[in-house]
Amino acid sequence: MIQGCYHCGEPIPEKCNLSIEILGESRHLCCAGCEAVATMIVENNLTNYYEYRTQPAQKSELVPQHLKTLLLYDHQDIQDDFVRENAQHHKEIVLSVDSVSCAACAWLIEKQLYKQNGVITIEVNITTQRALLVWDDSQVKLSHLLTLMHQLGYKAAPFEVDAQEQHYQKTMRHYLYKLGIAGIATMQVMMFAIALYFDVFDKHENSFRNYLRWISLFITTPVLLYSALPFYLNAWRNIKALTLGMDVPVSIALLCAYSASIFATVTDQGEVYFESISMFTFFLLLGRFLEMRARRHATAISSNLLKLIPAMATLVSGEQVAAKTLKKGDAVTILPGEYLPADGVIIQGLTTIDESMLTGESIAVKRSKNAHVFAGTLNGNGNITIKVTHNRKDAFISNIIRLQDQALYSKPKIAVMADNVARYFVGAILVIAVMTWLYWHVYLPEDALWITLAVLVATCPCALSLATPTALTCSTSSLGQLGLLVRRGHVLETLCKVNHIIIDKTGTLTEGNVQLVGTTIFGQYSTSDVLTYAAELERYANHPLTKPFLPYQAKRPLFDSVKNIVGHGLSGKINNQQWRIGKYEFVRDSQSNLAPLANVDYCDDYSIWLSCDYHIVAAFKIEDPLRQDSKQLVDSFKQQGIKVTMLTGDNSIHAQRVAKQLNIDNLHANMTPMNKLNFLKKIPATDVSLMIGDGINDAPILAGSHLSIALSSGTDIAKSSADMVLLGNNLLSIITARQLALRTRNIIRENLAWALGYNLIILPLAVAGLVTPYIAVIGMSASSIIVVSNSLRLLR
């Protein structure tokens, strides 16, 4: 007989035949609402809710409390604060993930989520304890993916700096509690152990020896059950997922030692290891604690950028509002010495802005009306009013952090190899430990257990797992301080191998501060007319060469439609006349029957030409001064034995002049985007190329080269095609970046050599019984701390 709804307990209406299989049985439900919630619970594998609940769900509260928060993340209004849509129209979010301690944790999360339909990318970084998740919202909901991570034992939530900071402080406080209990217990138990070790009791005082053992048991139990809890939880997650993590051998060692000690205490036979258990736990926790602090230091630089954005902002009306609530179009007043609360355009006032946190350049820059300014930068000595152009999640500083994180989530080959080796190494340790116990149990049974414990603890490959990610995190943070934004994970690896530099000229080696120094007329039009027509065509281009014409633009666009032929010029029609501006061959049109300009040789020094119906009407002479550090950049690369080639779309006269000033031997002028890409395809297979550019015409070669750097002053398409973006104007940062990449490679090699060398040395010693358990745990903890500390040198 059906008594009531299985979910809420209320009577089931007549003719209601709703049911669902829960815990192996068909359960009857009273309404579609209960059916929907029960189905969601079953699909998310959360049926333990029904096993352990003390009463039916209330009608007003059908959804269990622990699912409520996760379901809220599916609401669009909430997602607007932390979810963005990428170029492929998939949703993307950065998550904070608790309890990720080793490569096995990251591998487990990635493996399980990749099984879900709709998951495009899931990449976990164990150093930052964050995950980058990209998914198709039409196939799977965010709440379902977060629930799955919770089932694995890893709590995940949208990354927020303040929440992350609070969680870090809470975690460290709990670690200190556990560490304190383990430390006090170790001191107490060691006092009793000294008496037991040195046989201060004779056979007539056996009862007092047993008394000390029982006291040691009571003191050690809280250590095992509370202080060592993080190791068991991580080990249990790994075992449930049929994988092996660093804490599996540690947990086995602690539980085996405790079980053997209890048996010895109760039966008064054999040895006890209470002091080893307390000491194991204390040193393991101390190592984890110091490791967490070091990793926190490595990731704090990028996280601290968001802290520069003030919490409050002042609207022009004088009203104080939360900075995160600012919307596009809001007008905000910023006083001298205040940090900017949002990206925007100055609509009133003149000031200087300290942008060092973005560009790495300490000198403040002047900013006046119509200038773009960015959240987190520091206002200097002027009162300004800005019009907000981007919401908080789309701010420039947010994009920087997101792109840096994406680079950290991408694992180079050496990191993937180290993770795989560490995972298999744990399995090998367990096999060796079993064989060690079997051997010593036959030849020296009283020592078999502690020798096996030493093997399990001493050889735990924590250092091997940390060797690569900590170094990469530190170096990426250092690149950010240099004003170099890393967009791809392979940057540091490839930068070490570069042996051929390919550089664009205009806006890269030159300042891009193009000036019009001469205009020659070849027809009936006046100078002001040709300048206006040229400016109106250049209105539709995004290149440094357009800047000299900006002052001559008309109040309203003259041309109905303009075509931009990248690498050649622009073409537009007005009054049935075909106007062109750009290279000489383009404005003439080689397909026409018009004769070439008679005195073209005389005009070779002109870069830009203007024609009407393919008749040359004007030529413009421009100058673009070299950047101050261009010569030093080229010289430095050549001194390192790196080949330098300049590719430019400009004519050969200008290009040869710049190449001569910079002592560049390999020059290719008058290059179209396709010509540049074809050049890249023809270079020797042994060349590892680095392309540096800034324009639309550089986008194909930026995307095609082994490594590429775009200047922040360049076009959006160039920056989106590049592997790195130089946020400031200091080209010498590229040299420093290569030096840092070489240092990073050396430090990763040092870390791996130390981690592997330590394990290869300690393993035979532990198997041979030459390493006591407390020495084993000290060695393992010290090995991890050494690797992390070595990586932190990259932050200097």
Automatic annotation (TrEMBL):
Instruction: Cite the HMA domain residue spans from the record.
Output: 91-157
Reply yes or no: does the keyword Ion transport apply: yes
Task: Kindly provide the name given to this protein in its UniProt entry.
Answer: Heavy metal translocating P-type ATPase
For this protein, the parts annotated as crossing the membrane are 175-198, 210-232, 244-266, 272-290, 421-442, 448-467, 752-771
Question: Which family, according to UniProt?
Answer: Belongs to the cation transport ATPase (P-type) (TC 3.A.3) family. Type IB subfamily.
The major lineage groups are: Bacteria, Pseudomonadati, Pseudomonadota, Gammaproteobacteria, Vibrionales
Q: Which Pfam families match?
A: ATPase-cat_bd, E1-E2_ATPase, HMA, Hydrolase
Q: Where in the cell is it found?
A: Cell membrane
This protein's source sits in the domain of life called Bacteria
InterPro entries given in the database record? ATPase-cat-bd (IPR021993), ATPase_P-typ_cyto_dom_N (IPR023299), ATPase_P-typ_P_site (IPR018303), ATPase_P-typ_TM_dom_sf (IPR023298), ATPase_P-typ_transduc_dom_A_sf (IPR008250), ATPase_P-type_domA (IPR059000), HAD-like_sf (IPR036412), HAD_sf (IPR023214)
The source organism is Photobacterium piscicola
Question: Does the keyword field hold Cell membrane?
Answer: yes
PROSITE patterns recorded for this chain? ATPASE_E1_E2, HMA_2
NCBIfam families documented for this protein: ATPase-IB1_Cu (TIGR01511), ATPase-IB2_Cd (TIGR01512), ATPase-IB_hvy (TIGR01525), ATPase_P-type (TIGR01494)
Q: Which UniProt keywords apply?
A: ATP-binding, Cell membrane, Ion transport, Magnesium, Membrane, Metal-binding, Nucleotide-binding, Phosphoprotein, Translocase, Transmembrane, Transmembrane helix, Transport
Recorded topology in the membrane: Multi-pass membrane protein
